[in-house]
Write a structure and sequence with these properties.
alpha+beta, two-stranded antiparallel sheet
Length: 193
């Protein structure tokens, strides 16, 4: 019996070291990881517009462990439904930052993440931005409605060579994909004759 317990403990330790999240992932994320895992996390360019870089399964698990360390379950329980209602109305919540059912799928160099919502509420399957200062931000653009919608918007932008939310796809001399930010006309310096 002691040997059986030792083996079970070793399996749990191996899962923890390998980055085991301990909950089923949504099908679009699983499909994406089956297609791209191991490639996108090493990719020198950027498939995602803006400052985000896709991450592989091991990085997802490591980022999830890091982010869940910031989640304050007691505060979330105290605020309860109020925090969820504020998130839906205001579009952001510091209480949800690090929630165990918000699975990181991309990161930026500044520590921000794109997370896929695995909660059972209205936003299940929706993509959000998560940053330490702002918390979790619910972006209203339809491309954030789901991971497939985000990938479809990216694919369309690449196919028709059009900007996606102010980011233009560019391929450099080494055939790497990047996204250049295109400022709005109002952001440009005035033209002087």
């Amino acid at each position: 019996m002691a040997r059986r317990q030792w083996i079970a403990d070793q399996i749990r330790a191996d899962r923890a070291r390998a980055g085991y999240i301990g909950r089923p992932l949504l099908k679009p994320l699983v499909v994406s990881l089956l297609r791209h895992d191991g490639f996108l996390s090493q990719f020198q360019g950027s498939l995602l517009p803006g400052r985000y870089r896709s991450i592989g399964a091991r990085e997802i698990a490591a980022a999830w462990r890091l982010l869940t360390g910031f989640y304050d379950k007691r505060e979330a329980d105290e605020k309860g439904r109020e925090a969820d209602n504020d998130f839906m109305k205001l579009g952001f919540s510091s209480v949800l930052y690090g929630h165990p059912q918000l699975i990181p799928i991309a990161r930026d160099l500044g520590g921000g993440h794109i997370v896929l919502d695995h909660r059972t509420e209205v936003d299940r399957g929706r993509v959000h931005e998560a940053e330490a200062v702002e918390g979790v931000m619910r972006v209203s653009h339809e491309k954030w409605a789901s991971l497939p919608a985000l990938m479809e918007a990216i694919a369309t932008s690449l196919e028709i060579f059009r900007p996606l939310n102010g980011n233009m796809p560019v391929v450099d001399e080494e055939q790497r994909l990047y996204w250049d930010y295109i400022p709005l006309r109002n952001d440009r310096a005035p033209h002087r004759s």
